[in-house]
Amino acid sequence: MPAEHAGASLEALDLAIEVPGSIANLGAGFDTLAVAIQLYLRLGVRAAPGMNELQFQFTNLQLDGENYIERAFRFLASQGGGSFPSLFITVHSDIPTKAGLGSSAAATVAGLRLYEAIAGPLPPQGLLNAACALEGHPDNVAAALLGGLTVSCQMPDRSVFAVCLPWPESLRFIVLTPKLSLSTYESRRALPRRIAREDAVFNLQRVALFLQALQSGDFSLLREALHDRIHQPFRQKLVPGLEAALTLEHPDLLGVCLSGAGPSIVALAERNFDAVERALQRSFLPTGLEYTIRRLSAHTDSCTPAVMIPSAQESVTT
């Protein structure tokens, strides 16, 4: 959201806010890694008569459950005194809901950006702190706020460090989304409360390998780096086609992982996208389910330096 809008006359307010979706975990990086993608939630914002009212029009989706845009906006508004000019907001989203592509994080960040549009620029630390308080984990919201590839680390005092890294431009995502909904809550319930030490070491090694593969450009390492023992094996029973996709072989396929909590499945490639897409589709066909397939690139335009999210005891607006 451009800073110059914050000082504009509210009567003439006419804003566009755009927030990217995201792919979290990226194999072994459970609750740690995420990358912003070129699927977007877009708000059109105009002034409305009166005070303290938000009027929403959803142009291409039906609201199912709580409005996370409004929740995030009012969360910040309560920190700033609670009073605000009424707004009329149109919402258009390319990000499917309950698909593991960061729709709730994008809505949360959009609500924070919306408040910022009328209150003036807010520090990145405050925005991230608010987003994490609302979402409960930092990976998707960090990517939605910072762009690019993000690494999040929770500190002993419950503060979180988030850093944005570049994503290789040539490395693209082929995303297969089954036509079924899977909530993050349901997907997390499938995970064990404790893991074996050798499984933790397995994932630590592959997170390090994944980051090195991206930095060095040696994408041949990605297939092994995307392997995981912490969440994907336990989510296979909830995500049809995931087990077959994780063992998929193709000369131009660099690796496969579950996107976030699922059910979207992601294949990485840098060439011969048609063939990789067909291979992913063939692996999924035995499920008999309908699906949508997309070719996506990373959203890197807003990639900003590392930020420290203050602990929960600190104000989100300071």
Short précis:
The chain is of the alpha+beta class. It has helices at 68-79, 103-119, 124-135, 139-146, 184-189, 197-216, 222-225, 232-235, 242-246, 273-284; strands at residues 14-24, 33-51, 54-58, 85-93, 149-154, 160-165, 172-178, 255-258, 265-269, 291-296, 307-309.
Q: What is the arithmetic mean of pLDDT?
A: 89
Which regions are unreliable across 5 or more consecutive residues at pLDDT < 50? Answer: 1-8, 304-318
Query: How much strand?
Result: 25-35%
Envelope shape:
globular
Describe the protein's topology.
Blueprint: E1 14-24, E2 33-51, E3 54-58, H1 68-79, E4 85-93, H2 103-119, H3 124-135, H4 139-146, E5 149-154, E6 160-165, E7 172-178, H5 184-189, H6 197-216, H7 222-225, H8 232-235, H9 242-246, E8 255-258, E9 265-269, H10 273-284, E10 291-296, E11 307-309
Parallel strand pairs: 3-4
Antiparallel strand pairs: 1-2, 2-4, 2-5, 5-6, 6-11, 7-9, 7-10, 8-9
Helix pairs in contact: 1-2, 2-3, 2-4
How would you describe this structure to a colleague?
- The protein is 31% helix and 25% strand.
- The two termini are 19 Å apart.
- Strands 1, 2, 3, 4, 5, 6 and 11 form a 7-stranded mixed beta sheet that branches. It has a 4-stranded antiparallel beta sheet with strand order 8-9-7-10.
- With 318 residues, it is of the alpha+beta class.
- The protein folds into 2 domains: 174 residues, Ribosomal Protein S5, domain 2; 125 residues, Alpha-Beta Plaits (2-Layer Sandwich).
- The radius of gyration is 20 Å and the shape is globular.
Defining key terms:
318 residues, alpha+beta, Ribosomal Protein S5, domain 2, Alpha-Beta Plaits, seven-stranded mixed β-sheet, four-stranded antiparallel β-sheet, 10 helices, 11 strands, globular, disordered N terminus
